[in-house]
Amino acid sequence: MKAAVLENKKFVIKDIEKPSLENRRGAIVKVIGCGLCGSDLVKIRDGQAQNGDVLGHEVVGEIIEINADSNFSIGSKIALGHHVPCFSCTYCWNENYSMCRHFKSTNIRPGGFAEYIYVSEEHLQNTVFNVNLNITDMEASFMEPLSCCIRAIKRANIKDGSKCLVIGLGSVGMLMGGALRAYGHKTYGCDLKADRTILAKEYGFEKTYITENSEQVIMQMKKEIRDGFDVVFLTAGAAATLDFAVKVARDGAKIVVFSSVKDASGFANNEIYYRELTVMGSYSPSPMDLEDAMYLLEQKKVNVLGLSTVYSLDKINEAVEDTVSNKIMKAFIKL
Ligand SMILES: [Zn+2]
Ligand SMILES: [Zn+2]
């Protein structure tokens, strides 16, 4: 079968062995499409992904073979999450599902940038969901990234009437804004790029700011959002946004770290102490978050249309370049 295999930080389209159900339980899924995630790009950049890996976890596909106790059958159209928590360890008991060692050891191999994938019985029972007829394949591929945002929002435990700021208006920032609004929160956004702030405004953000001159924007925000933002989400992956977040947060606010920052500096100790700030991370979703994401997509509570650009598997390197250079917001690789 055809797959995009990683070689020296580039994808190479190769013919690799098609997965089978021989001696194992689970399902073989014919991939319809798979979103290219920012975390795939980070894994390539930082060398966590190695030569020979087939990435891709925002998969939508169709079950073509199955040998498992599950709610699915041949022909089921599904979307999936790639990690399964054990639900019985210390991490799981404390709802840190993504810290569960079992969660981290489970995955989809090969990933979704291939014609077929193997999905284990455990995945089928926990992190796989039917795709309703009322949503498109591309929309369904947003289940996993949207669920990450939902988890961050749940962790922040946001009070009604809170003012939330999303820093970074790429596809993740847009999704975060969409999810925040779906839950009824007032959502503001900022980005260095003017076109993204305009797009976000059209997408339904209350107000957006261009952060080119950050000191000026901080002054403007302080005037308009009197005490500061109640919750700040960091989706940009840029070191400069840490300090910015602290400056525009209200005393006592929560700052949710939602992206990897290369060579990150820290948050200022005394700001956290004297201003009672809560800095928290949110990483990867639980099965319950995946379910909630699928619900929001089916109910059309979060609009993801227009966020992705479609590329064929052969054009996956082009998709990576266009994403990195901000030419597009996000890529959906169609098999
Ligand atoms: Zn992802
Ligand atoms: Zn666990």
Which helices and strands occur, and which strands form pairs?
Elements: E1 2-7, E2 10-15, E3 26-36, H1 38-45, E4 58-67, E5 77-80, H2 90-93, H3 101-105, E6 116-120, H4 121-126, E7 128-130, H5 137-140, H6 143-156, E8 163-167, H7 171-182, E9 186-191, H8 194-203, E10 207-210, H9 214-224, E11 229-234, H10 240-248, E12 249-257, H11 269-274, E13 278-281, H12 287-298, E14 308-312, H13 316-324, E15 330-334
Parallel strand pairs: 8-9, 8-11, 9-10, 11-12, 12-13, 14-15
Antiparallel strand pairs: 1-2, 3-4, 3-6, 3-15, 4-5, 5-7
Helix pairs in contact: 6-7, 6-12
The structure holds zinc ion (2 copies).
Short account of what is shown:
This protein is of the alpha/beta class. It is about 35% helix and about 25% strand. Bound molecules: zinc ion (2 copies).
Describe the structure.
The protein has 335 residues and is of the alpha/beta class. It is built from 13 helices and 15 strands. The longest helix is centred in the middle third of the chain and has 14 residues, at 143-156. The structure holds zinc ion (2 copies). Residues 85-86, 89, 91-92, 100, 102 line the site of one zinc ion.
